[in-house]
Write a structure and sequence with these properties.
Order of helices and strands of chain B: EEEEEEEEEEE
Radius of gyration of chain B: 14 Å
Oligomer: heterodimer
Helix content of chain B: under 10%
Strand content of chain A: over 45%
Number of helices of chain A: 0
Number of strands of chain A: 11
Amino acid sequence: DAGVIQSPRHEVTEMGQEVTLRCKPISGHDYLFWYRQTMMRGLELLIYFNNNVPIDDSGMPEDRFSAKMPNASFSTLKIQPSEPRDSAVYFCASLDSLSYEQYFGPGTRLTVT
Amino acid sequence: DQQVKQNSPSLSVQEGRISILNCDYTNSMFDYFLWYKKYPAEGPTFLISISSIKDKNEDGRFTVFLNKSAKHLSLHIVPSQPGDSAVYFCAASLNSGGSNYKLTFGKGTLLTVNP
């Protein structure tokens, strides 16, 4: 298996623009997580899905952030409009509920200028 | 409000010696703990875990110790190798019978193992 795939790996955009981050989980995994990593706050959980259904979105910072999982093999995290303080590395992870191990993707480094 | 704290941002050790990474937590309801390792430009990878019903778990060179009364866990790496140089994250969860997979992470400790 190729592991968790994220795209793009790097994104540079201007303030006010819409940003869409993409994730393909490991096939067969029934949980998907979106995290954000910053120097100040470390690794924070934004939202997670089980069988494509959002279970907990309490970590989503504000209404500018939204996440979808239209099917078992694809999820998006959208920021609209983007702001400089959204600059961070965003990770996607997936998990098989028979195990406790979350498998992380390589991350998307987002820079908003 | 950091529920999982790694108070040492960095640690430097000599190859062959023991590395000890520490983690404290504030939520007494946490009952499952994990350590992840992260290399630059990669995502975190699972290293080792421990349930609150145990006080020690060992996997090769890696051992995790849990002190529930002190709300403290530590990761020991013996012997340390240069390839262990990475950021180590401590994470905790409310297992709740095995259906809660939400993890709360610490900010990480950068371990450097010098040859």
